[in-house]
Design brief:
Elements lengths: L3 E4 L19 E4 L2 E5 L4 E13 L4 H14 L8 H8 L4 E3 L6 E4 L2 E4 L8 E9 H4 L7 E6 L10 E6 L5 E5 L13 H9 L9 H10 L3 E9 L3 H10 L6 E5 L8 H5 L4 H14 L4 E7 L4 H12 L3 E7 L10 H6 L6 E5 L11
Parallel strand pairs: 1-8, 3-10, 11-12, 11-14, 12-13, 14-15, 15-16
Antiparallel strand pairs: 2-4, 3-4, 4-5, 4-8, 6-7, 6-9, 9-10
Helix pairs in contact: 8-9
């Protein structure tokens, strides 16, 4: 996904503009992002969303649905099939590339770059701090699409302002806050597509506790954006703190949804996490993941790169049989400024922030 950087000042923006037609069968989704001070008197506001059209009769999508159903060992008529149909529906949409989206930001309008082939559009907008910061209420700014006059639908999203200093938590999702069992492909498929999501014990309580102490959250996961809606509902139901979401793009040409979920996430996660830390050079970070795949190696690279900016690395032990005895000692034993915690449930992290 290309990310376009542009500078817009209020004097160049106007609310007296025509809307863009979003067809009646098209839907726009905005993803939670963040804004930050990128200079003494300027702010950067990240906007990210996608546009798609439901298209459940496509042959390619029907083939994909059968592949996922076969992996999850489920058939139409099984008790879990309605949930399966709900979870997979965004894999079956027609992502709309080449679409122009206009976004209302405060009192002005932002013209987004054309959506990519996967339907996603993104832009980082730089504005004068004094003009945009007062528009944030409790550090949140609500945005929405600008549509034609007779379109009564509202597509909205929110952007969180994160101060220059403080504690930021960068958290994985699967097997860190949500039980997925990534090490067992069949169980992973069932937990992802046919079963109600289950929270890792104590994690929501612990994250809320950290929020009360001033922490903010970024969720960085290798899950596909097509699972954003059910994951967001799960997090809201379990009362996890809201934060920016960073997922991966899944395309029909990928070999399968399951191979996508179990692919090596190192390069992707290191890139996303590095970008977040680079935006906040004065904040300190807690990295939370699990031992199922490569989170320890990813976080070790981040600690090596950013040193004391990383306050702690917390790894949930999922008893990976491939673990070597000295896996964690070898990765984190030489970093004195970063605390390492191996845990099983959220309650074991209660003394990390006081």
């Amino acid at each position: 996904m290309k990310k376009v950087m542009a500078v817009f000042f209020t004097c160049l923006m106007t609310s007296l503009v025509s809307g863009v037609e979003i067809k009646s069968d098209e839907t726009v989704v905005f993803y939670p992002t963040y804004a930050f001070l990128s200079g003494s008197d300027v702010m950067t506001i990240n906007i990210h969303g996608s546009i798609y059209e439901p298209e459940e009769d496509s042959l390619k999508r029907s083939v994909l649905l059968r592949i996922i159903a076969g992996t999850a060992d489920i058939e139409e008529g099984d008790p879990g099939y309605p949930l399966f149909a709900e979870r997979t529906k965004l894999f079956l949409v027609d992502n709309k590339g080449g679409k122009d989206i206009r976004v209302r930001l405060g009192g002005g309008i932002i013209d987004m770059p054309e959506s990519d082939g996967n339907g996603h559009f993104a832009k980082s907008v730089v504005m004068k701090k004094g003009e945009i910061l007062p528009l944030f209420k409790r550090n949140l700014l609500h945005i929405g699409t600008v549509t034609v006059t007779d379109d009564g639908r509202k597509f909205t999203g929110e952007i969180r302002y994160i101060p220059t200093q403080g504690i930021s938590v960068i958290s994985d999702i699967d097997d860190t806050i949500k039980i997925s069992n990534v090490l067992d492909k069949k169980e992973l498929a069932k937990n992802t597509f046919t079963r109600p999501f289950r929270s890792v014990p104590g994690m929501a309580d612990q994250y809320r506790s950290w929020t009360r102490k001033g922490a903010v959250f970024h969720y960085v996961s290798g899950s596909p954006w097509q699972l954003y809606e059910p994951v967001r509902r799960f997090m809201d139901d379990e009362k996890f703190p809201r934060g920016s979401m960073h997922l991966k793009n899944f395309r029909l040409k990928d070999s399968s949804a399951l191979d996508f979920l179990t692919a090596d996430q190192r390069e992707y996660k290191i890139g996303v996490i590095s970008s977040i830390i680079n935006d906040f050079p004065e904040r300190r970070f807690i990295l939370v993941g699990d031992s199922g795949e490569n989170d320890p190696e990813v976080y070790a690279e981040i600690v090596k790169k950013y040193g004391r900016h990383v306050k702690a690395v917390c790894i949930r032990d999922v008893k990976n049989p491939a673990d070597k005895k000295d896996r964690f000692t070898g990765l984190f034993g030489n970093y004195r400024d970063t605390r390492f915690i191996l845990f099983r449930n959220g309650r074991e992290l209660q003394y990390l922030l006081r």
